[in-house]
Model the fold of this input.
Amino acid sequence: MENIVEVLVFAMVAFVSFLLWRVLYSCWVLPIRAYRKLVVNGFSGPPPSFPLGNIVDMKKTKKKTESCLSSSSPLTVSNDIHSSVFPYFAQWQKDHGKVFMYWLGTEPFVYIADPEFLKKISAGVMGKSWGKPNVFKNDRKPMFGDGLVMVEGDDWVRHRHVITPAFSPSNLKAMSSMMVDTTRSMLDRWTDLINNGKPEIEIEREIVSTAGEIIAKTSFGMNYANGRMVFKKLRAMQETLFKSNRYVGVPFGKYMCLGQNLEAEKLGKEIDALLLSIIIDRKRSMAENGGCQEQQNLLGVLLAENHVDGSKGKKLSTRELVDECKTFFFGGHETTALAITWSLLLLAMHPMWQHELREEIKQVIGDGEIDATMVARLKKMGWVMNEVLRLYPTAPNVQRQVRGDIRVDQDSIIPDGTNIWIDVVAMHHDREFWGEDVNEFKPERFKDDLHGGCQNKMGYLPFGFGGRMCVGRNLSAMEYKIVLSMILTRFSFSLSPNYTHLPSVMLSLRPMQGLPLIMKPL
Done:
């Protein structure tokens, strides 16, 4: 009996020792190895503190900056936003340059705000060869699952192959009429508010809500109730994951904010269940019609691609379809809505450009119905969109993880597995590449140059870069032009005195206190 007890005790001690070793190895040994590899290759940066890395300094700097901004004049509007959006990076740039190493917990990152350096390391790297930092994949799994923005390698190729046909010109054209109808309902609501003596309208909330309704109808064929439910739950998850002070990258950090992480998982499962029921209903409908269905939305095309090209290795599983729907519901409404929101802010501050765009709309569209073909000819509106995405990039950063060593020059490499953080806001506001007028709203800089005159093409990344560039960018541009054209046709607008300029990152770049505008019918 004593021998059995001794064996059990020994086994338990061995098991506990093994667990402790695994924790020590993953939280201490591996980070030290990664740190030494980066130092050997010439990377340095702000010194980290175990186990939080540089998170404490980041939180302190952010809190100090927010305190200063909240005490400034409400109507002070500056497009020079990098030091307020990423104050810690702006400070570290002064000390360490545009490429340096910093730490989220025990996860080292190479920070990049140098377009030339980015060009060097990305040359010849295929889209499938870029990974996503594991720390973000795990943290954001309730929101994106294994959707296109998170998968990599051959899985990324397979997902991209199935998804790309959904954004063909013919499918985009079919979506445009639903965009027009939904936007018209929003503008009618604004007219009613103005007629009832309420000319100040909270634009950001209205635009984001309408964009959610548009993506629900055009991409998934959802009814209003289901679309609103998914939208509300995704927004709640976004606030849970990105508006709180969590400890991403810190060992066992998920347990330090257990309530928030459990809430995010709960919301993720509820969204999954709703999307799964919609997918099952659509599959049943297609089966009843012999596999045929009108491919008027993203989901219909995804299911049709699975049906036609459903060979092993290319077909998306039901779980993957749910994740793609979740990914595109969020990405499809959030980024476009915020691009329109920031555009309305800048146009409110520059009424001359409101006039320029209205004149172009009259010349191109006249009194006819707006459609995809017509809005594609709105060149000046394209300049405005590009300039807005330069000053206020809705995707303010890009994250990658290196798959295989990348040689920078003869003396240094970026080792396999290295996390990379690309600061899009910093590059879009860099005087070295854009000139002294970098923080001024000048859409004409894009008149004859797709990159706005930037001295390095990698310095302008509104939709990412390389093979992993945003697959839905044409859909986003079409929706942007349709919604903005309809607003400009029916209203002029100016900035409300109640507006407070606080651009902030909650995964996307948004006006943290909304955008109230004074709307006037034309």
Observations:
- The CA atoms of residues 431 and 438 lie 6 Å apart.
- The two ends are 92 Å apart (CA to CA).
- The longest strand covers residues 99-104.
- The longest helix spans residues 2-40.
